[in-house]
Amino acid sequence: MTNTQLTLVQIDNYGPWTVTPDPRREMDLQTLQSRLFADLAQFVGSRDGYAFFTRFDNMVAVTNGLDRDDHELLQESIGNRYPVTLSLGIGADRSPAVALERATDRIQRAGSAQDGDRREVLSGETLADADRSDTDLQIAHFDVNDATGKYTDRLNEFDTFIHIEQGYASLMRHLREEHGALSFFVGGDNIISVTPDLTEDQYRAAIDHVEAEADVELKVGVGTASNAHEAGFAAKHALEDCRHRGTIVEFADAAVETADD
């Protein structure tokens, strides 16, 4: 049974900061956001977690294996190097959606995202070692079948982007509403989903739904492990199995060895 630990990462008072004392240059803001996400991804990834940019001012991290001290160090590191601070809410549950709701509630109870007096909140409990197992996380890595041939080599970039995003939106909504899973676009034609225990039939149903609704064909590799890196790396191997075997759903062999992504 899965037991997903998620951390909501929220920039404190970010909206007002972007226009105080005057509106800031847009590319300066985009640069700050991209660098901040890169540092978050590097910090969490070095501890075998995953990070997703979502809306950049609010980001989601899969933090199984990170404890409270790790979260405090992240806040300290960002606070020392950026003109903004981070509040962190932590939640855990077999359902990723419920875990995120719990993490979100922790921050919301401490005050508004645009409250100038709310800074560096850290709320929520991390999973104790005794409560962790090798099946805590199920990660599904989707990609679009022949995206290069169907879109990249035939259409302009924006129309390609529309097709990919429509597929992502359809998958994201379906998995969230049907299973409490959380799906994130990670670039190119790739989507990573953090899911509860789903079966092959449930993944096939999701793929069929996206094809029917958005006319985008997907395949998926699925991995399970105690942390996001190991589960995600196993999912990548399973996705390669899809390519070699011509299948649309593959689960990773439990013996897959992990390496640096």
Biggest sheet: strands side by side, in what order?
Answer: 2-3-1-4-5
Measured distance between first and last alpha carbons: 25 Å
Number of strands: 10
How many helix segments?
8
Runs in which pLDDT lies below 50 for 5 or more consecutive residues are none
Report on the architecture of this protein.
By secondary structure, this protein is an alpha+beta fold. The protein folds into two domains: 4-134, Nucleotide cyclase, GGDEF domain (Alpha-Beta Plaits, 2-Layer Sandwich); 137-259, Reverse transcriptase/Diguanylate cyclase domain (Alpha-Beta Plaits). The protein is 43% helix and 21% strand. The protein has eight helices and ten strands. The chain has helices at residues 14-17, 26-45, 68-81, 96-108, 147-152, 157-179, 200-214, 228-245; strands at residues 4-11, 50-52, 58-62, 86-93, 122-123, 137-144, 182-185, 190-195, 218-225, 249-251. It has a five-stranded mixed β-sheet with strand order 2-3-1-4-5. β2 and β3 form a beta hairpin. The radius of gyration is 19 Å and the shape is globular. The two termini are 25 Å apart. The model has no long low-confidence stretch (mean pLDDT 95). InterPro entries: GTP_CycHdrlase_3, Nucleotide_cyclase, Rev_trsase/Diguanyl_cyclase. Belongs to the archaeal-type GTP cyclohydrolase family. It catalyses: GTP + 3 H2O = 2-amino-5-formylamino-6-(5-phospho-D-ribosylamino)pyrimidin-4(3H)-one + 2 phosphate + 2 H(+). Catalyzes the formation of 2-amino-5-formylamino-6-ribofuranosylamino-4(3H)-pyrimidinone ribonucleotide monophosphate and inorganic phosphate from GTP. Also has an independent pyrophosphate phosphohydrolase activity.
